[in-house]
Design a protein that fits this description.
The chain has 448 residues and is an alpha/beta fold. Helix content is 28%, strand content 25%. Helix 1 runs parallel beside helix 6 and helix 3 runs parallel beside helix 5. Monomer.
């Protein structure tokens, strides 16, 4: 994939590791990772809750927010739209104004949640005009499916550069609702973006999913949060047909749970070091789909304890491999599994994740190139990869300006001395304190 440029504009004031070009990660002196940690709040829930709170009329208090690049740009965007937001620690107080947005120019960084959830919220405002720009990487990710569906509902949206991609120009007007057909194969966020706007449509709204949804659980998560804010919705578990009725949103006080995607990196540390890690603010009952990664760890031989207020994983001396698995429903953990697969006793084949080629980086190619540079045998497919057992060699690796690439490759440093990662600050997209948490668990982390 070659050299990858860093989009410095997308980094927010909440970015950690400014000025740090390379991080070196080496195993703990005791080798085994043992500890109990508290994981930052869910990125997915944070930005959904912030946007829905802003759309409601009145004051909402959201506790447990994630303070990261993505949530910074969400809050910054909402403030520029005229929403009063006060952040104290991990609590945000949002005073929604019922879609009375200020017109202007907006920047959403690399946050897929804002880029997919905001257009509908703006398009259905009775008045206003907005130019919305995104980061370099976000501007390469398709948006046409969402825009086409919103236009079917009456929205007025123009592309300012390349057809089907950011930047956008949106003119606010009343949206009627009706019925649209939409693919779920590229991103579940397109579906969520439509649904979040729908309680303010003039008429009832139906979305029919024409194929499969790459991650059903994130749509369920959106619907559950909408219901907490008073939306009236009707659907079944298949999510092939979802109905939303006019209702608007009503302010709420919420306490958000930990980010399951982030938690999995630390559970993976226990898995590959024969250690033990307990996450004290997350349970298996979460609707976040990545929690199912613990089932994969069990398949690899680990012991998982599903507590009423926590989840704990104990590793094993030798991880089990020799299987094929679909990671479609928890595709953000594809790179986590790929990074620990060299330490298994047989090859692991990951399938059904072609859509992650269109995330912050081409994640399939990025992890294949990285593992190959580490000396690991890889087979790459259009929708996944196969990782063979091996002994990674220390080397300098790109992170492709992608937080999930960086966090996954960092895991290898718990077994191999001197894993070097370029641009470690990219983890600020979802977990600015990631390397601090690694160090707190005993890994040797050196910043240069």
């Amino acid at each position: 994939m070659g050299e990858f440029s860093v989009d410095d504009k997308a980094r927010s004031p909440w970015t950690s590791l400014k000025g740090v070009d390379i991080v070196s990660i080496s195993p703990s002196k005791t080798r085994k990772i043992k500890g109990t940690i508290t994981i930052p709040g869910s990125k997915s829930l944070t930005n959904r809750a912030l946007i829905i709170s802003a759309m409601s009329q009145g004051k909402s208090t959201v506790t447990g927010i994630l303070k990261s690049d993505d949530s910074y740009w969400c809050i910054d965007t909402l403030k520029n739209l005229g929403i009063d937001i006060e952040v104290n620690g991990n609590t945000a107080i949002i005073v929604g104004n019922g879609l009375k947005w200020n017109s202007g120019e907006l920047y959403v960084g690399s946050a897929g949640t804002i880029a997919r959830f905001l257009p509908g919220a703006l398009a259905l405002s009775n008045k206003g005009i907005w130019k919305i720009e995104a980061s370099q990487s976000m501007s390469k990710r398709p948006i046409a499916s969402l825009v086409n569906a919103l236009e079917e509902c009456g929205a007025e949206i123009c592309y300012l550069n390349n057809e089907g991609y950011y930047p956008l120009l949106i003119k606010g007007k009343e949206l009627k609702g009706g019925e649209v057909n939409l693919s779920g194969a590229i991103s579940s966020q397109f579906i969520s973006g439509l649904l979040i706007a729908a309680p303010y449509f003039k008429e009832s709204f139906i979305v029919n999913i024409t194929d499969h949804i790459v991650q059903h659980s994130y749509v369920h998560l959106t619907l559950e949060l909408m219901k907490k804010f008073g939306a009236k919705v009707k659907y079944d578990n298949s999510l092939k047909k979802i109905e939303v009725y006019p209702s608007g949103y009503f302010p709420q006080d919420l306490n958000l749970e930990a980010d399951a995607s982030t938690a999995c990196y630390f559970l993976a540390l226990a898995a590959i070091t024969n250690g033990r890690v307990r996450i004290d603010n997350l349970t298996y009952e979460t609707l976040q789909p990545d929690i199912k990664m613990v089932d994969v760890f069990e398949r690899m031989g680990c012991k998982v304890t599903r507590g009423s207020t926590y989840i704990e994983l104990e590793g094993v001396t030798q991880l089990r491999g020799g299987f094929e698995i679909s990671m479609r429903e928890m595709s953000d953990q594809t790179l986590t599994l790929a990074a620990i697969s060299p330490f298994a006793d047989g090859p692991i084949t990951i399938k059904d994740v072609e859509h992650i080629r269109h995330h912050e980086s081409n994640r399939i190619s990025a992890i294949c190139e990285s593992l190959s540079n580490l000396g690991i045998k890889i087979e790459e497919f259009s929708d996944g990869l196969k990782v063979f057992p091996g002994n990674p060699k220390p080397t300098l690796l790109d992170t492709y300006d992608d937080h999930r690439v960086a966090m996954s490759l960092a895991l290898i440093g718990s077994r191999v001395k001197g894993i070097l990662l370029k641009d470690p600050g990219c983890v600020s997209k979802t977990c600015p304190q990631f390397f601090d948490l690694l160090e707190g668990l005993g890994l040797q982390v050196n910043l240069n």
